[in-house]
Amino acid sequence: MSRRFDVTHTDIRDLVLDECARVAEAGNLLVIPTDTVYGIAADAFSASAVAALLAAKGRGRDMPPPVLVPRAETVFGLVDGVDERMLALTGRFWPGPLTIIANAQPSLDWDLGETHGTVAVRMPDDEAALALLSRTGPLAVSSANTTGAPAATTVDEAEAMLGDSVDIYLDGGERTSGLASTIVDLSGDVPRIVRRGPIDAEELREVIGELTDQAG
User: Fold this and answer.
1) Which of 64, 170, 182, 197 has its CA at a distance of 20 to 30 angstroms from the CA of residue 153?
2) How far is Cα 214 from Cα 216, in angstroms, rounded to an integer?
3) Where are the alpha helices (DSSP H) in the chain?
4) Residue 201: phi, psi to the nearest 5?
5) Taking CA 38 as the corner, what is the angle to CA 117 and CA 57, rounded to the nearest 5 degrees?
6) Using an 8 Å Cβ cutoff, are 200 and 98 in contact?
7) 180 near 143, Cβ under 8 Å?
8) Which CATH topology does 3-213 take?
9) Which chain regions cross the lipid bilayer (predicted)?
10) Which of 74, 76, 56 is nearest to 141 (CA)?
11) What is the C-alpha to C-alpha distance for residues 13 and 200, in angstroms, rounded to an integer?
12) What are phi and psi of 164, to 5 degrees?
């Protein structure tokens, strides 16, 4: 039986987030508000939890989830060879709606799916999400919807699609943008946009120069 908590009630939020951290550590799933859309979240270092996340969405291992982090400095533990481009992008756009794909640290003991040695990372600009991440560390988070359906902008939409596969639903109110984050791939020689979103190509070029747009 799923539980729902309203994280706009700041008087109980710390208790709720502590419980969410316990649930995530136990390998169960959460739905959380972010600055873009609602996300379904799992402990990034629990292979079974990530597998449950993908199953809840009806998604295969060929579509691994991104990882949300509580602070920009966390990338040094997750990314192999943090370079000037990544530091420039995180300095300008984090916290915010930019996901960065980079080569993952080869020593990490995790299984996000068929990542081909990469990891997609983002620091969301949402107070409740960051407060939770500060308790849990990196979480694997994908949009809270079943594959092929629009991303949930309210907790009701998320629960209608994901049901009892999720242990706790956090209600942070409607997400008004409805836009998933821009995704930039830095794992190759030339940065490329692989999903368009709130941050456009011109804004990115102002920061890192050369960039291709393969989002189509």
Assistant:
1) 64
2) 5
3) 10-25, 47-57, 75-78, 84-93, 127-136, 155-162, 201-208
4) -60, -40
5) 60
6) no
7) yes
8) DHBP synthase (3.90.870)
9) none
10) 56
11) 34
12) -80, 5
pTM: 0.96
Q: For residue 56, what are its two tokens?
A: 């809840």
* Sign of the dihedral through C-alpha 81, 59, 51, 125: positive
Q: Which residue has the tokens 């359906």?
A: 149
Centre a 10 Å sphere on the Cβ of residue 186 and count the other Cβ atoms it contains: 21
Enter the tokens of residue 178: 């409805």
What does DSSP assign to residue 56?
H
> CA separation (Å) from 73 to 91, 115, 121, 173?
10, 22, 12, 29
pLDDT tens for 157-211 read 999 999 999 999 999 999 988 889 999 999 999 999 999 999 999 999 999 999 9
* Residue 16: CB atoms within 10 Å: 19
Half-sphere exposure of 181 (CA within 13 A, CB side): 29
Interval 74-125: pLDDT, tens: 999 999 999 999 999 999 999 999 999 999 999 999 999 999 999 999 999 9
d(CA 48, CA 43): 9
